[in-house]
Amino acid sequence: MEKKLDHIGVAVRNLEDSITFYTNVLGGVLIDRYRSEAKGVESEIAIIDIQGDRTELLMPTNNTTSPIARFIKQKGKGVHHIAYDVGNLDEALEELEAHGIRTLEWSLRTNKHGRRLIYLNPADTEGTIIEYCDYPEK
After folding, report:
1. Which residues pair with residue 47 across a beta bridge?
2. Disulfide check for 131: which of 39, 72, 83, 135 has CB 3.0–4.6 Å away?
3. What Å distances lie between residue 117 and 11, 59, 86, CA to CA?
4. Residue 41: is its pLDDT beyond 90?
């Protein structure tokens, strides 16, 4: 199954400062900003496009329950996850199962942009948080 880099998720402490850096210094364009209180997200999110490549800036909205807050507390701010567009998430999940790779089932959802996504279990990915996603409406 073909996979293509979709975006990189970056955990940040201050969304305003991060947006300023990504737009003024890196020349990106802010294409969306929204708040998600979905379980496993609980963040304010800014999507930056830099010449066709996307970065999601993730700032926790709940320092007690947000996984982004836990990530920052444990590892500090920085790259949180790498997302791959797999074309067909259902087929990709079957492929993962065949390889013995587990997912974080609670993370399966569709976001406001119609992207279906799930996170792979970092215990099976050498510690890297990897998101698989697809866009069924495309």
Report:
1. 32, 56
2. 83
3. 18, 19, 10
4. no
